[in-house]
Specification:
Length: 201
Amino acid sequence: MNTINSIVGVQNIANNPQHKHTTKKAKSNSSKIEKQDVIYEKSNNLDDSVNSDYSHLKNAKYTINKAEIEAMKAEMNERMKAGFLQVVKEFIGQQNIGYKYAIEIIFREGSEKIKPKMVVQAKQDIAEGGYWSAEKTSQRILEFAKTISGGDPQKANMLKEAFLKGFEEAEKAWGNDLPEICKKTKEAVLEGFKEWETIEE
């Protein structure tokens, strides 16, 4: 008896139109989720006249403002000169300090606080070819000048003027009391600029 009632109940559910509609709707929604695709639509904001080969740029005209270019070059040169002037001032100031410190160490040789190694190093630093010598210091200055100018001989005279101003400022900063080694450095640098100016590109 229970079996018969169960069968009748199942048949009633199957024959119920509302149940059929609900089942179809669920299946339909499931199908939409499983088969949903991404659709891309062409935007109306795109300019059809712009081609991927950039042909629209072929007719563009560009003019060179020589005055602006020359002004930019002049500004770059002024910055180069100003930077080099400061470097020269620092290099000469450092040489002055290094030389005087080495001389002090040498004079105080035998003192309890002055070790033999310090005296040897001080003598080497101010000797010919030493770190604070006119030869080595002038080389550092000239190498810096050639680096910032790309080694262009046409800029040698400009940087030579900046060197002279930087050396003059270093003299003023130290009360016009620079040692002879600094003056020899100046001579060596000017000689280096002279040789640099004569180099053909």
